[in-house]
Amino acid sequence: MYSYDYPHPAVTTDVVIFSIRDNQLKLLLIKRGGNPYQGKWALPGGFVNPDESLDDGARRELREETGLSGVFLEQLYTFGNPERDPRERVITVAYYALISSDQISLCAATDAEAVGWFAMDEFSELAFDHEKIVAMAHERLAAKLDYSTLAFQFMPSEFTLTALQSVYEIILQEEIDKRNFRKWVLALEKIEETGEQSREGAHRPAKLYRQIKPGKVEIIK
């Protein structure tokens, strides 16, 4: 085996997973089963194998620790503070993922004791520097709503315009004018009517829509 003159830091991937649940933006966390930070809540993630890409490593860890696969995944940022991991010099490449509530089927595995959903104000003192990673992912998510179809990743296969507007309002934490939103989103030509209607309680039936290119995030500006 070749011996290098300089030490090599370890590389990990961590994934920030968002979903809309109970009309709130929620974050998926795992409870660590081993040291360091045993018993602490943390982002799903782990060490990248020598023979796999960063993307493959992130997908593998996500699948192994939560049971999730086939979700939208995008690279966020690289975190390399020398003191971020007490074990050794570890550089982590962070990702964020968005999933619709109807795609959720979780299970804890490998080194995770438990897995659960938390609102953005329901957690504190995450392991490592994961609070900083979550904060950056949240900022990126909100910023991309204005120039991409990123929010559509939260939607089920069929949805109403009211449900889509609710996602934007939850993420931005502000109310949006209904008429202006509908005019804007229909002008994008990224969704289409299904020909069906949603009937909920005593409310008037609402048209159902679907993405023209499901699973694809498009730039709109």
Write structural notes for this entry.
The chain has four helices and nine strands; from the N terminus they run ββββαβββαααββ. It has 221 residues and is α+β, with helices and mostly antiparallel strands. The chain has two domains: 124 residues, Nucleoside Triphosphate Pyrophosphohydrolase (Alpha-Beta Complex), CATH 3.90.79; 62 residues, Arc Repressor Mutant, subunit A. Strands 1, 2, 3, 4, 5, 6 and 7 form a seven-stranded mixed sheet that branches. A two-stranded antiparallel ribbon has the order 8-9. β8 and β9 form a beta hairpin. The radius of gyration is 19 Å and the shape is elongated.
What fraction of residues sit in β-strands?
25-35%
Q: Which overall shape is indicated by the principal axes computed on the Cα atoms?
A: elongated
Given as residue ranges, the uncertain stretches (5+ residues, pLDDT < 50) are none
CATH H-tier superfamily of the largest domain: Nucleoside Triphosphate Pyrophosphohydrolase
Q: Give the termini distance in whole angstroms.
A: 50 Å
Give me the count of strands.
9
CATH-defined architecture of the largest domain: Alpha-Beta Complex
If you compute it from the alpha carbons, what radius of gyration comes out, rounded to the nearest whole angstrom? 19 Å
Total number of domains? 2
Structural class: alpha+beta
The CATH topology of the largest domain is what?
Nucleoside Triphosphate Pyrophosphohydrolase
Characterize the largest beta sheet: strand count, sense, and whether it forms a barrel: 7 strands, mixed
The CATH class of the largest domain turns out to be Alpha Beta
Helix proportion: 10-25%
Give the helices and strands as they follow along the chain.
EEEEHEEEHHHEE
Average pLDDT figure: 90
| Number of H- or I-type helical stretches | 4
